[in-house]
Amino acid sequence: MAMEDEDNNTAVVATNTQPGIKKGGDVGDDGACIDRQPDTVVHQAGLNQTAGRGSRSGPGAHAATGIRVLKRNMKRNGSRGCVTRKTRFGSRERDWLKGDTQRGCVCLYGGTVDPQLPASGPQASSTPQTDLQLVLCSTSTTVEELCAQRDGQGLYVQLHGDLVRRLDPSERPLQMLYDYLAAMGYTEPIRVQQEAANSDLSCLIRFYSERPVNADQQERTLLKGVFSVRKGKTQLHKWAERQVILCGTCLIVASVKDSLTGKMHILPLVGGKVEEVKRRQHCLMFSSAGSQAQTYFVNFDTLADYQRWHRQASKVVSQTVSLVDLSCYSLEAVPEYLFYSQDVTHLNLRHNFMSLQGPGGLLNLPRFSQLKSLNLSHNRLGVFPECTCEILTLTELNLSCNNLHTVPVQIGNLQSLQTLFLDGNHLSSLPEELGGLSQLNSLGLSFNNFSHIPAVLERLSAVDKLAMAGNRVESLELCTLARMSHLKNIDLRLNGLHWLKSVSLEAVSQVTQLDLRDNYLDSLDLSSVCNLETLHCQRNQLGTLTLSGFTLRMLHASSNRLTTVNIYPVPNQLTHMDLSQNLLEYLPDWVCDCRKIEMLDVTHNLLSELPSRLLNSLSLRKLLAGNNRLQRVSDLLDHIPLEALDLQHNKLAELPESLFYKALNLKYLNVSANALESIPPSSPSEESLSTLQELYMTGNNLNENCGALLVGHQNLRVLHIAYNQLLSFPASKLSKLELLEELNLSGNKLKTIPSTVSSCKRLHTLIAHSNHITVFPEILNLPEIKLVDLSCNELTEIQLPDSLPATLQELDLTGNSSLMLEHKTLNLFSHITTLKLDQKSTTTAGDSQSASPPWNHGYSEMSGQRNKLCVSVLAVDRFGDGVEACYGIFDGDRNEEVPRLLQCTMGDVLCEELQHSSIDNVYMCNTFLTSHRKLGMAGQKLGASALLCYIHHEPSDPGGYFSLTVANVGTCQAVLCRDGRPIPLSKVYSLESCTEEMERVKLSKAIITEDNKVSGVTCCSRLLGCSYLSPWVLPKPWVHTKPLCSQDEFLILGNRALFERVSYQEAVCTVQAVRDPRAAAKKLCSLAQSYGCKDNIEAAVVSLHIAEDSCTCEPPVSTTEPRGPPPAPVPVTVTPGPSDPATLSSSSGIVSEFNSETSASEVGSEAGSTASDEHPSSVPASRPERRCSLHPATTLCGIMVPGSVGAGTHPGLFQRQPSCATFSSNHSDNGLDSDDEAPLEGVISNGSKLEVEVDIHCCAFQLRSGAPESPKDLDLEKRGSDYPNGKMRRQNSVVVSATNGCLLAVCGREIADLKKSPSTCSLFGKKLSNGSVVAPEDSHNLIEVALEAPKKKSGYFTAPAQQDPEDQLIVPPSLEQEVREQLRGQSLLVSAPPLQSIPPSLKDPVWDHPHPPAFASNLVPGPGPAPILQQEVYDTAL
Predict the structure, then answer these.
(1) What's the pLDDT tens digit per position in 243-277?
(2) Angle separating helix axes 1064-1072 and 1077-1090, nearest 10 degrees
(3) Are 648 and 627 in contact (CB under 8 A)?
(4) How far is CA 914 from the centre of its chain?
(5) CA distances for 1008 relative to 491, 1109, 1121, 1346, angstroms
(6) What's the alpha-carbon Rg for the chain, to the nearest Å?
(7) DSSP state, 60?
(8) Torsion sign across C-alpha atoms 717, 721, 722, 727
(9) d(CA 937, CA 1027)
């Protein structure tokens, strides 16, 4: 639906109080009339103000700063958090800004705007909001100066839509804005200046001219009103008007006139009652607790008041303690009425901006006579509030994360203090007076600047835990701990410890728990710590480890370099031991002597055998020994209690014969990636007692005989037997597995799946891709079936029941080249949430080869055991206007919204950034930062890892070799296979794997939890989104460029879950064994799942076919043969049909996914034949010369412009095109809108989708339209659009967008009609459950209008859907005559050379040309490149 244009109602008002300035209308550079009323202009002294008409100066110019206030009376659309209309600055403003990068724009929002309230319905989008002021100032302009200019009381800043803080008078808003952008990753001053004026930035940092009003906050802190009140339960008291206040834990009833000075009745509510009075309307009864309880009746005026008071009072009376929680309210002081609640014992003021002075400041907190617990963490105090030392009743005090540098000596006054948290500050010492707190038993000193353990701790005899993680203790003598005999738990992780030694022989007997994770220890001898029970020493550099085993219970020593572990005596109390990811070649003898060990993890070592005594242990329940060098497993001698056994990635040829009937408790067995040819029987007799529930045998040499041996495991729920040698699966045996829920038979040689699979009534997942299955299995009658993957098989037809189970959510039938789907079949499939089918192409083999780029891709996604798929893929084999490609993967961990947003926008952002810079580090970094900004409100609390790969030619050598530029944040990774060897191209930004990032996060005083997560949220230090974790988590990516050569075979992209289970080398070997990229990607995901991954898995494989000279040209057949018009365009549909084998490889990985809400008629119409819709060219097409895109034919595009007839067309050059495959008329910013209802030839509407005729041979696009009927129409042709870099063409009021090598022409009313149609309304605003939208290639162009766009109307997707009607195309005078001649009449086809990139040095400043002559410049013939004027990008959306 096209949005209304609001610019007609938007006036740019500059207010001036200086006399002698007359009113008048100025015409800005954009051609729009700007109504200038008397305005207040204070310019910097000496500023040249002659640029542009209407420039003015006055005697009142400010001497220090230049401040201009521009007021905008504006409306908002969709989300209230983002402004959606774009208006450019006038020439004077641009000239002033262009003069100095230290000048800029600050957007001041009104105080009544609540950016966090979501828009609900059409009323929300049409609600007028308060004025927005644009203040042009410099980085030296202070808040005091801005307020003096505006007659304001103060300014406020809000970060990430969260807390709102009042700015100090000396703070400089524009400098704060620039510093914020620099911290994000922007480095160029001009780009920082431009980004600062972008309205999308308001979701990250926003300035208010007054404190914004939050109704919900006011309700939860203070309720106040004048109501009818009656005291007591009897009728003796009369109703009277009283002021009633609910604040804290008390109800206050006071006189209306003298509410603060007169008599007050205070009713404590904790433990009391609040009840509805049924005899009176909107009346509540408040009662206090105790034997002498008092009662008040309050009659409210409205139902809203009644509900609000009832809701808040019910929370208070339900409390067991007198707790007042005022956290996260942006408070500067506590409400004055709160001090009347003298029964308050717990006060939480966390995450505020409390000040010392004022009526409700911290200096007044001692007025609480019974206060025991006070939380002042995250308040930016800067200094320790000494007034808290006067609250002598305190037992708990939390001052974490307040930038404290010292602790005052007055802390000694708090003799009742038991808990003191000082984490996340800058403390390096503690006062001696702290040692006098005899009752202090918990002291938090983590993430400070201590270089040694404070000596005052020796006197704190009640403290039993030393919490000093994240400090700077680089060395420690154990004798120091021996002197502190009361410390039992020592936490010294993340300290940079290099050595920990015992100088003397003194025993450290009191320490029972020691945490030394993430340090730099190369050896560790703790034999003197004789009572140690738990040791954590993961992620060090330990080569040797010596411990005392007297009381040892748990040992965690993974990710080191251990070759042996010495423990004496034998740790008979040891129950849990983790020695994974070390260099152990054998297990020490004492391991077998442990009598109580229950869990042993020795994965990723160098073990060649497991001791027989260990396997026959009577206590071991879980043994993880995968990724070693085991060649055999010894026989079991007796019944053992083993429940889980992991032996994957070894060299096992067989398993113990007695495994299953000696380990009767075995429920989980993983023997994937071995050399097994058979499995042992479940029991020696026919009767089986097996309790096995999960069996993973992927990647072995098993044949169909193993099926008979599986019958005994009748409790089996999960069976993975993929990538073996199965020719069939015994039908009678499969019927016995009645409890089976998940079955993976992929990568075998199966021709059919037995019909007895219908006996598995609990089966919900069937994965059988990459086989030779020809008949669709009988699984669609299973009551719980959810996912069916039969891709990469040989299916020809599908026999379906009359109805499908409602539980079916995903069906993958891609890669079945001979599959024919009938209309009825597609109708039955219409309700499936995710339906994946091949897109068929009717091109010949020669045409396909001539148009195919030197690469193709395939991808795969699996949700695992998660309910939703939080990963997405971006894949464009044809990116831009040359031989380029763009691939990306996005992993949202627990959210699906951010990956989908990135998938839909990041390709377009990269297109835009490539217009501004040719430096890889610059355009890639800016792509990530801009995408981070465009996430809007969705990116405030949610985030995602992102990886983007861009294959291109170097700008300095357009005809040379290809280069691959990779950028990533988070844990998504890319691996290049060169000569069979993996080459990692990305950097893993997790705290565990990146030392420098860990140090950066520590320096910024983030709290890193024990699982190495920033504030307990994410293990990544760089993400797109999660802006509320700034500056700890940043969006700046790692960027790396690698030249490609003929030895490069393929590129693998994967998320964290994939590469945690599949090594780089195994991934490369896996893809090498499978030629088809899609099948290879599916195999990678299946392997990761069989190796134990439970999370979302995502893999993309890009097959590279790069020759020595990167050229795929074919010599011309005849040099004298005249070149005819391009061949007839092919309408792209998803019609199933036979495909030429030559086109199969180029189409691998291309999928069409249908939404669950797509109607049956809609799907059927998509699959119907379109032979009758073709419009073949009347001129016979001769076979064109086969060219590669390095040496393209001279004519790239032939666009039929209005006024031209016959075959004569003007050459038009499409510039770089956006890569997003989905376009929504109301969500995207493509500007698709038109009032022209005339049908366009070449654009076929079948009632549900728009199908576009595309010549896939030479990328020529044709648009036929009649001559303009009037001079008005001709004048319309001269109008341009504000779409960047001429990516849109306006012809006869139809906006044509070039995207992904496709031509998309959509009329506004046609879109509106489509939305009204029942069969097509579901196309707009719907999304897939798995978030997967892969952009199709040029050879398979299917334009789906907003089929997969996100529903959430916030952030980036509230961008305007049409352009400003006032915007005109500005044609330079030197080109005006030529343009008129081109538009006036007919002319012959003129060949134009390929568009050359303009060096950055030749580009005009971004302030000068707000409207590039994109259309006109493409019509101008000439021997050189068409002149291009760069569009102004310094926009403020209004």
Answers:
(1) 999 999 999 998 887 665 668 889 999 999 999 99
(2) 140
(3) yes
(4) 23
(5) 13, 51, 71, 41
(6) 36
(7) T
(8) negative
(9) 10
Burial per residue of 172-204, b for 16 or more beta-carbon CB atoms within 10 angstroms, e otherwise = bbbbbbbebbeebbbeeebbbbbbbbbbbbbbb
189-196 vs 920-934: helix axis angle to the nearest 10? 20
Amino acid letter, 100: D
Report pLDDT for 130: 52
**pLDDT tier, 1339 (very low <50, low <70, confident <90, very high otherwise):** very low
Q: Are 1297 and 1230 in contact (CB under 8 A)?
A: yes
Which pLDDT belongs to residue 842?
52
pLDDT at 197 > cutoff 50: yes
The token pair at 410 is 């007055």
| Residue-wise pLDDT tens digits, 437-454 | 999 999 999 999 999 999
Could you read off the pLDDT of 1056-1112 as tens digits, one per residue? 999 999 999 999 999 999 989 999 999 999 999 999 999 999 999 999 998 875 554
Burial 792-812 (b: 16+ CB within 10 A, else e): bbebeebeeeeebeeebbbbb
Q: What does the DSSP 8-state code read for residue 255? A: -
Separation between Cα atoms, residue 737 and residue 484, nearest integer Å: 61
Q: Where are the alpha helices (DSSP H) in 806-954?
A: 823-828, 845-851, 897-916, 920-934, 938-941
Q: Is 905 exposed, middle or buried (0-12, 13-18, 19+ CB in 10 A)?
A: buried
Round to whole Å and give the CA distance between 1135 and 52.
Answer: 58
In total, the chain counts a number of residues equal to 1438
Residue among 1393, 1399, 1378 at smallest CA distance from 1426: 1393
193 vs 1175: which has the higher pLDDT: 193
Q: What is the pLDDT of residue 1379?
A: 57
Band the pLDDT of 2: cuts 50, 70, 90: very low
- Name the most confidently modeled range: 52-61, 535-544, 800-809, 1312-1321: 535-544
Phi, psi (deg, nearest 5) at residue 565: -130, 125
DSSP state of 905: H
pLDDT, position 1097:
95
Reported as type and span, the H/E element at residue 1380 is helix 1373-1384
Given the structure tokens 């019609």, which residue do they identify? 1135
Question: Which of 525, 478, 472, 526 has the alpha carbon at shortest distance from 497?
Answer: 472
Contact 269, 313 (CB under 8 A): yes
Cβ-based neighbours of 350, under 8 Å, separated by 6 or more = 327, 328, 375, 376, 377, 378, 379, 398
Whether residue 542 contacts residue 561, with contact meaning beta carbons closer than 8 Å, is answered with yes
Chain-centroid distance of CA 851 in Å reads: 34
Average pLDDT over all residues of the chain: 75
